[in-house]
Design a protein that fits this description.
Helix 2 runs parallel beside helix 10, helix 2 packs parallel to helix 12 and helix 3 packs across helix 4. A 6-stranded antiparallel β-sheet has the order 10-11-12-13-9-14. Strands 6-2-1-7-16 form a 5-stranded parallel β-sheet, with helices on one face. It is an alpha/beta fold. It folds into 2 domains: 269 residues, FAD/NAD(P)-binding domain, CATH 3.50.50; 150 residues, Elongation Factor Tu (Ef-tu), domain 3 (Beta Barrel), CATH 2.40.30.260.
Length: 434
């Protein structure tokens, strides 16, 4: 049996390679780093987290929490490494960024069925292959994929938030607390009063931006919107978004602040913090100037500034089936954000499903049937739904999962019931062997 090629060692590619290898299939994993990197990549390790270090909610009342639990029960590499390197973040699963990538890299390189081949791939190989080069696919391969399908890519713009050192945060102006005191106090909260917020907003929305070819506010993906773009939507948009003060009490005043910037630890040592929701494409000096207007960050030391980059994705409903495979050639599959799933966990889930389906194909077994009642299945069915006219990348959510037969009025209880139904299906599928 010929080896299956996996192109790209990001979250989707690493998950795909692992699942294939765990099923006894030889894998050739191609990765262009460290020989070549995109502007958004900094490390040589696999599964690099370019934007946030959070894999979002870990609660079953949330769809991404369900998706993580499905993957957890199905022995996902990405979720197991995230669990092993988690840092405190309330009800979210956040990880030590470097520790997570290092652990994924170690497991991939040490697997006897995986051969890592360095260097850039510039053509779509013959199958069996899973292309998982992500939203930052190199220009050469991006052009080759376009030629392979004979269609144009769609694209949107994405942004990453800056990081500051913990010791440079003025804790006289900040405090530890999780919203509504849920879980442990895992966020550093930096308050602003009305005057401070309005001055900050004025400078934020008029600050000089770094040039990004083709960038327009309307092309920004809603789930990762730059903070300055959000600020331009109205004076209170940020206060109802990443700077919302609800559920927090400033110990200095005993009252809810006017606006709050939250910091989340970015590594296990708690020496680096991420500015939550502060994705940006302001010029670096402008980021330093404007973000230092936040009282607790007036002397902040920035170890990484925010960056802006173009993300590319396929018109998947016209091209791919529910297993992320080319409708014309089932031995050529794609995975990750380039297919239109949005988010770290969603990318891993696409890599998982593409891999277990590819394993079944090359081993002559029946394809696994992940139904719409499961989050994994619902994502695959969403990106392959030919009825969608205007396709946009999307995070997993309960609206794409098959509804319950019975009506449950309270949203949290309904979502939990949906999750429990899905996990019962997943457990049964695992017992039967996937």
């Amino acid at each position: 049996m010929a080896a299956v090629k996996v192109i790209g060692a990001g979250l989707a590619g690493a998950e795909a390679a692992w699942q294939l290898a765990q099923r006894g299939i030889l894998v050739e994993l191609y990765e262009m780093k460290p020989e070549k990197k995109t502007p958004a990549h900094h490390e040589n390790s696999f599964a690099e987290l370019v934007c946030s270090n959070s894999l979002r909610s870990d609660r079953l009342e949330n769809a991404v929490g369900l998706l993580k639990e499905e993957l957890r029960r199905l022995d996902s590499l990405i979720v197991s490494c995230a669990d092993a390197t988690r840092v405190e973040a309330g009800g979210c699963l956040a990880v030590d960024r470097q520790g997570f990538s290092d652990l994924v890299t170690q497991k991939i390189r040490n697997h006897p069925n995986i051969t890592v081949i360095p260097g850039e791939v510039t053509q779509v190989p013959e199958g069996p292959v899973i292309v998982a080069t992500g939203p930052l696919t190199s220009d050469a391969l991006s052009k080759a994929i376009g030629e392979y399908f004979g269609t144009e890519y769609l694209h949107f713009f994405d942004a990453a938030a800056p990081l500051v050192t913990a010791e440079s945060v003025d804790m006289n102006e900040a405090w530890w607390q999780s919203r509504y005191d849920k879980g442990t106090p895992d966020y550093v909260n930096c308050a602003m009063n009305k005057e401070q917020y309005e001055a900050f907003l004025q400078e934020l929305t008029s600050a000089e931006e770094a040039p990004v070819h083709g960038f327009e506010d309307k092309n920004v993906f809603e789930g990762c919107m730059p903070v300055e773009v959000m600020g331009r939507r109205g004076p209170d948009t940020l206060r109802f978004g990443p700077l919302k003060p609800v559920g927090l009490v400033d110990p200095k005043t005993g009252k809810e602040p006017y606006a709050v910037v939250q910091l989340r630890q970015d590594n296990a040592a708690k020496s680096v913090f991420n500015l939550v929701g502060f994705q940006t494409h302001l010029k670096f000096p402008e980021q330093k100037r404007v973000f230092s207007m936040i009282p607790a960050l007036r002397n902040a030391e920035f170890v990484r500034y925010g960056v802006m980059h173009q993300n590319t994705f396929l018109q998947s409903p016209k091209l791919l089936d529910r297993y992320y495979a080319d409708r014309r050639n089932p031995l050529v599959a794609f995975a990750g954000q380039m297919t239109g799933v949005e988010g770290y966990v969603e990318s891993a889930a696409s890599g998982y499903l593409a891999a277990v389906a590819m394993a079944a194909k090359v081993q002559g077994r029946s394809l696994p049937d992940f139904p719409k009642e499961t989050a994994i299945g619902a994502l695959g069915l969403y990106i392959s739904d030919e009825r969608i006219d205007s396709f946009q990348p999307m995070n997993v959510n309960f609206s794409i999962i098959a509804p319950l037969e019975q009506r449950i009025r309270k949203k949290s209880k309904k979502n939990l019931a949906l999750s429990n139904r899905s996990l019962a299906i997943i457990d049964k599928m695992k017992e039967q062997g996937i």
